[in-house]
Give the backbone structure.
Amino acid sequence: MEKPAAKSILWGPVWGLAFMQGAIALLWVIYSLYLVQLLTQMGFSRGLALVLLVVENLLAMVVEPLMGTFSDQMQHQIGTRLPIISLGVVLAAGLFVVIPTTLVWGQGALRWGLPLLLVGWALAMAVFRSPALSLLGRYAMGTQLPQAASILTLVGGVSGAMGPLAGQFILDLGPFVAFTLGSVVLLVATLALRWANPKGGVASSVDGSAIAANPTSIPLPWAKLGLIFGTGVGVGLGFRLVMIALPVTLGQRVPEANTPLVLGALFIALALTAIPAGQLARHLGNRRAMVLGLSAMACLAILVGVISSTAVGVVLAALFGAALSLVSNGTLPFALDMVPPARAGLGTGTYFSGGALAASMGGGLFTNSPLTPSMISLVAALAFLAAGLCVGASGRLSQGAPSEA
């Protein structure tokens, strides 16, 4: 057996990966802010935006685990996942820059190039996300994974907060500037990740034979993959429904409410509590921390219906963000811990696949739904509880091998 690595967390690569996570979140913020505007300027209906999001997420549900599996094979064959990550990033950054140019050349029948570009970009993002984020298992030991993941949560929370808090500023930049800046940030994040990626050793106690194992020689842990997928669906659906119910409730009960401030408070709290939540998960254990966070989120989701002012909304959103940090820190470590080291990409991709299905369900079934915000919040609470059951049930299965990407 190899001697354990001296460092339990490789902080340089973790920060590089966090930069990548932040760039991914920022691109989706820009995309969401401009989607309807771009479509309507090209003569499409606003409803096409929802259709595209549903289609994109359904395609991502298939692509995420496939790309994760492909990166596992690449890791085995050439010792790195960076080529598939770089390819996906170049495609995504290039398409992102091209999207706003359709306002110039997309006339007549060519206007249909815009929906095709939008779907193509979303698929390119799905190509590299699972391979990239599965690298977390190479940068931290199993028990340290939630602490390392807290850096990703922190940076992702800051990027997510830019939607509600800096949305108007981003719109004022105009689509050409905003999309170009987003592409540049993604490319710089990828360069930072490549620069920080360790040339040699791994921060893990896994022995070399486990790292070098051929993924195809390892039986698929179908039960564990099912729990990973179910967790992704529950967390993703619950969060999506809260983000639907919260602004609608504010609009109905507090017409003068500062909705961007309330939504921003959620992401700021997520970022601020990420590192303490990572420390807590290290002491409690990742599964216990996730179940605690999911239980708290379920309770807070039900309380959305009692919001009576902007102040109450901010407090509730901040508490929800704090609980979410326990879950966000734990999802990647949970997925990595449930699969053999050589299947890290598949495990990560399976979680994101569940999240993509949840996004399609949330967008297709609950956006513009006749259900009241209170009913939507109740469904969100049930989704969080279902995710908690999946996490709890995972502990009953045989202990997975320590994680390694």
